[in-house]
């Protein structure tokens, strides 16, 4: 068993903190693996950290099969809850994480109880109660209460980054709710600072964090802009409703036609037809974008279509000048430690894809940018005079490490297969100088696309053809979906 995969029940727990993991590696190196790794149907059900520690210590792991009769989920939860010291906030997020698994088990139970002779469902467990509201059941299983689970649900609407930090024990639910009032840039930095100094009070972390970032970008509870969500075909809606030169910035990730499974849209059309349609979309974007505006085109590739992102960029290049190319890095491995998250590629031929391209297009390639708005503090002071602009910040460059929330299984991603982090759009929009009074467009907004516009206080228009995605993003922006939108004034 060289490289077994993990059972979803074992993935609902956050990885061990680095110090505890290092201690486990040292212990296994010194004494060998004492408790074998528990397997179910070829997947690791319990012992993920032990397996990883064995690999790091160069110790051959031992395996045993799970012989339980109840629910594997319940067994994995109770085994881990006894061993791990999770805070009340972490337990609340754990309860949220197990909700979809509980629903799957409930369905399986229903199927079995309807089956021949209404035999007792194998998934029914003695430790996970099965009656009551789903969030109450999940709360009891995770050893917390449903009010906490509801708070975790509300936090999920504010952003995956905060939920991830609570899951990892970097923030409590209360601290995360407080951070939710700040824009993504502040939150990301605050989480980083807290990670570096886990015992510092959040107020101290925030004070340091705010000292680094220009004040205009960080006002808590900045007035939300009016973001509109239009449900429908973006090309048709842009043609009929948007005026020439009315949009300040577009940040978008269109479908790539690589067979991704979206809700309504089928991402698999004849190549020429797809590129022809995309060409029309870019023609429209050129028409509606102001001459000083910016188009940020986020595009990845898949092994089967290695040129996908370049084909997209070439279609845009017929109407725009390419001004910058940015690498959006989702995950980074330095000195043997990995940060961030990506979707692994199966097999041994291809490397995992840990970055995507962000093509920055403008009308003439000469549009000035607000580099200080996304600048980083100088590491040392000697050259400020020559390169500084007085803000104390310098240009952070064209490689952006903006990790996705670490997810432990596909259901964490929600029902959208290809969303980008809000912090990515946030950085693009601030670089383009957007703020209160700007009008931002994402013609393929999915579930995250236009949220950043709302957070920086800009007006925004997000368009998606899928009703469910529109519902989700409208809720996140505090607005309603428009099925027959009117022309913006
Ligand atoms: C790559 S995803 C965008 C994800 C988005 N950036 C996010 O972070 O959630 C592309 C989106 O385009 C939508 N879409 C596809 N064809 C469309 C069309 N003709 N008009 C509007 N939206 C469309 C899909 O439903 C999908 O949500």
Secondary structure: elements and pairs:
Elements: E1 5-6, H1 8-11, H2 18-31, E2 37-40, E3 43-46, H3 48-57, E4 63-65, H4 72-83, H5 88-114, H6 134-142, H7 146-158, H8 160-167, H9 173-179, H10 184-196, H11 202-212, E5 227-231, H12 234-241, E6 247-252, H13 271-288, E7 289-299, H14 308-317, E8 321-329, E9 331-334, E10 337-340, E11 355-362, E12 376-377, H15 384-387, E13 393-394, E14 399-401, H16 422-431, E15 439-442, H17 451-455, E16 459-464, H18 467-476, E17 481-482
Parallel strand pairs: 1-3, 2-4, 5-16, 5-17, 6-7, 6-15, 8-14, 15-16
Antiparallel strand pairs: 2-3, 7-11, 8-11, 9-10, 12-13
Helix pairs in contact: 2-3, 5-6, 5-7, 6-7, 8-9, 10-11, 12-13, 13-14
Description:
The structure is a single chain. 39% of the residues lie in helices and 16% in strands. By secondary structure, the protein is α/β, with parallel strands linked by helices. It folds into three domains: 63 residues, Conserved hypothetical protein from pyrococcus furiosus pfu- 392566-001, ParB domain (Alpha-Beta Complex), CATH 3.90.1530.30; 64 residues, no CATH class; 242 residues, Rossmann fold. α5 packs across α7, α10 crosses α11 and α12 packs parallel to α13. 39% of the residues are buried.
